[in-house]
Amino acid sequence: MSVRKLAMFAAAVFIAVGIAWGQEPQAKDPSRLDLRKRVIEFPVEKAIVGRTAPAGENAGAPNAAPPATPMPGATAGAPPAAPAAAAPPQRADRGKSLIEFPVKNAVAGRTAPPGAEPAPPANSPPATATHRDNPKVEPGKVKWHADFAAAREAAKESGKPVLLFHMLGNLDDKFC
Amino acid sequence: MLFSRDDVATFITNNFEPVWEAVRPVPIVEIDFGNGRKVTRTLHGNIATYVCDADGWLFDVLPGIYEPAAYLDGLNQFRLLHNYALQVGGHERNERMKAYHEASAAALAKNEDGPRLVNAADLSKARIERGLKAMLVPAGSSFAGKRTADDERGGAVASGDLAVWKELWEDTRLNESVRRREIHAKLAESGPVKPGEIKKWLYKEVLHADLDDPYLGLGEMLVGSDPFRGEPER
Q1: From A121, A129, A144, B46, which residue has the greatest number of CB atoms within 10 Å?
Q2: Cβ A148–B5 below 8 Å, yes or no?
Q3: Which string of b and e fits A16-52 if b means at least 16 CB within 10 Å?
Q4: A167: helix, strand or coil
Q5: d(Cα B134, Cα B29) in Å, to the nearest integer?
């Protein structure tokens, strides 16, 4: 890389860092994309990427991290120029959300919100479904006739008595 | 569930033409603990098992839930009762059934066991068609035998949950004493009927679940003191 290119690169980084420090103090919702930073960085990124080697040429470099696995904290403030050089030419900065969402989801899945009830023991009765959720089940092991008339017809053939079972609800409902 | 047991299911399938009917939707009790957890249960016990002939005439009823061995014993009595009734026809059959119900109701009113049906084919060397010829014998007869439920009581306790079994056994005793006495008295008085003709009476007077009442007769107990009971339901 020539001295001139190096100077241009350093100047671009210096400008980007200065502007970013002056306009970034507000706390933001981490789940949102940081659009302002991207507006500033994108032209710089384009300038840098356009002047560095393609990703394939840097594949063996020690700091050539794959773009899909960014390091935590990599987007705090303006990034240093070196990682951008190792990134694919299409887009060096993948956005905070790509880093923060997986971490947020992983933490949320393992902790309870403040004031939440502790998890019940494994042998406590499960929270069962309501009557709106009453799935069909096998009505025992008996070979039932479809209705009383069918059972009577069968009884005429077999000579067996008819056994009629009356109940509230349906025998083939889970809750009966 | 009784019908999931191999012994009950096999006995029913081998000896009856079985069918089930819903008389109305089941009441469901849901307790919302307010923390996202709910427990849902149904009200059990309001079931009835009828035995009928091929023309739909009713012979007898087992009311409510039974302990499995007692239920099997009741089903075996039903099988024999059907055979006993069909040995004669017409008016004689009606008289035979009336005598059976009167004798049973009278015995239960005195806290005694009712007459038992036994298979005479087991007592005779003569070959009897289908191996079944039922006869009615007094409870104290040497042929009457012992109730299967009593014999298997110990096994049921050992294999199941004691508290649940005790409740089931209490239900069974109530069914076999008070409830069956009411049924025998009704059938002795009414003469030949079909299940649909006594269904509402059975549920209201014996099982205490009024099928014509949307609250099954529980409304006064559940909302009787509620100052908002006159307001439309939400």
Answers
A1: B46
A2: no
A3: bbebbeeeeeeeeeeeeebeebeebbeebbeebbeeb
A4: strand
A5: 44
Task: Say how many Å lie between the first and final Cα of chain A, rounded.
Answer: 80
Interface test with B, best of A128, A132, A142 (most B CBs within 10 A): A142
Residues in B closer than 8 angstroms to A150, CB to CB, are 19
Backbone angles phi, psi at B17, to 5 degrees: -105, 95
Pairing of strands A162-168, B17-24: parallel
The tokens for A176 are 């009966």
Selection from B193, B185, B174 nearest residue B59 by Cα: B193
DSSP string covering B109-166, please?
Answer: HTT----EEEEGGGT-SS--GGG--EEEE-TTSTTS---HHHHTHHHHHHHS-HHHHH
Total CB pairs under 8 A between chain A and B: 165
Sequence letter at residue B46:
N
pTM of the predicted structure, to 2 decimals: 0.61
SS3 (DSSP) at B193: coil
Return the closest-CA partner of residue A41 out of A91, A111, A116.
A91
- What ipTM does this complex have? 0.84
- Residues B49-90 pLDDT 10s: 999 999 999 999 999 999 999 999 999 999 999 999 999 999
